[in-house]
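Hey all, quick one. A colleague (J.T.) asked me to put the S-adenosylmethionine job into the tracker so the inputs and the structure tokens live in one place instead of scattered across chat threads. No bug as far as I know, just bookkeeping. Sequence used:
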Amino acid sequence: MAKRGTCRCWVALLLLQAISLHFGLDFAKRVGMPRRPKSNPRARDRAASLLQVDSPESIPTTRSWNRAPAKSLRLPADKGCCSFRVKRHWRWRQMIEEPLGVYEFCNSTGPPRFHAIFASAPGEEEFLGCFRTPRDAAVAWDRRARRAEWPVLNFPVDGEEEGPTLLQDRFTFYRSKGFPYPPTSAAWRRNQLQDLLKLNVTGVWRSQWMLQLDDLQRSPGDELCWSFHPHSFAVSKTKGANKEMGPVKKPSALETFSSNAGLMKSLRTCLERCGDPACSPETLRGECKFHDDSMIFQGGGSWIANFPATVAAAIYQRFAPGGVVYDACAGWGGRLLGARLGGVRKYIACEPSSKTFAGLEELSNLLSPLEVELHRCGSEDFDVEEEVDVAFTSPPYFNTEWYSDERTQSHVRFPTVEAWRNGFLQPMLAKMVTALRPGGHLILSVTTRRAHRRSGLDLEGDVHQIVEELGLVQEPTLTMLKTGTDNGRKGRPIFVWKKAAG
Ligand SMILES: C[S@@+](CC[C@H](N)C(=O)[O-])C[C@H]1O[C@@H](n2cnc3c(N)ncnc32)[C@H](O)[C@@H]1O
């Protein structure tokens, strides 16, 4: 009985996929040849101004470090005609055929209404009104977009001729250019570091135990770190360990970019959520990580995060000023970069993934006078040879992020939660504690999410139990908060323990 139900589910899903594929091909034909304006100089100039940008490095970035994109588009409470939430997941047809910035609202007492909402800048939305047809809403949106000098529009307004839409224009541009990897030139990297060194990292402390950032998911230094790890865009998150089928991988940013639906959805949110009319490479990279284009566009994609370098720097400044630190799972380099920004003398770390290790080595060459000692191995096997002031890391969460298939990856070597806890987590923590000088601090960025619990993983609980057994004394937990959030419970915890002195 159950088998028959599963079978039906699969047939339905396959049907859905076939339908979206059909529309996808149809759409690809259309966006492959965007129509150019014939005689409207204004529209042509705008299109040209976008198309002449030929290298990702030369596309201006409208996002700035201290401005976050709007999380969700909501109807302003005082202006709307009903209180329903704006749709965040477009259906395939809507995504292609509905004009930008137009959201359908179901009105329980009448026909659907169309709201025009304009993202004038990251996080700044303007409600333009409630309309009976999507076209009316789009025209209102277009008029507003012209005032902001956005280049190519949904519809010609005020007697203009039709031109390519901004969405088509950006789609064609990125299809011909390929994935917008971060720049890799030595000059760009040096400039990024120079800018970062000017930041006042102490400003990240909001109170004694709270650290705050404008955006926890994109923070200063991330772009520099990603520049050394192009393979990070091929990393998938998993949907949790399915007991029979094993973990199901979500599409990576690269896979999302490669599919027409994924790229289209990512470009739409660059424009509509982030208010970035150029769809800069930086914004698009982020949006491709957010989305899951599979099936019916539900759920998130593979948001692979780097530990914020400025937060790491502030922590090092407080707990290991000018000292020696050990990072058992170096990852994307946020803590390595943070060590340089925070004035650490020596950074020792393990990273078993060969590609990530190579990226970290390259990054470390930029960070003189910081002394860097990197080891390409699993930290469960590594004994630190000198005493350290701080042992600070963010370990992998078993198999929730699929960094590589190499055997040295903790989840590949220890494929069950129990084996992973005993074979990786416990020895890694024990070796971190051994490396600490008396009075030194163990600092861990870990959380347990509902999805982890469902697959039998309670990282927070396990870490607390193991560290307690190792005899360390817990200190107040640090919280990493987004600016404007007052509720400490919404922050991400960073746990701190102290090794007894002497
Ligand atoms: C990327 S970090 C976790 C993400 C985190 N936000 C960060 O960058 O700080 C986890 C890292 O642990 C590494 N890793 C996997 N198995 C490991 C092991 N046995 N020992 C040490 N590191 C390991 C992975 O290759 C990955 O780079």
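Adding what we noticed when we looked at it: The pocket of S-adenosylmethionine is lined by residues 305-307, 328-329, 331-332, 334, 350-353, 356, 378-380, 394, 396, 403, 409-410, 424 (CB under 6 Å). The chain is about 40% helix and 15% strand.
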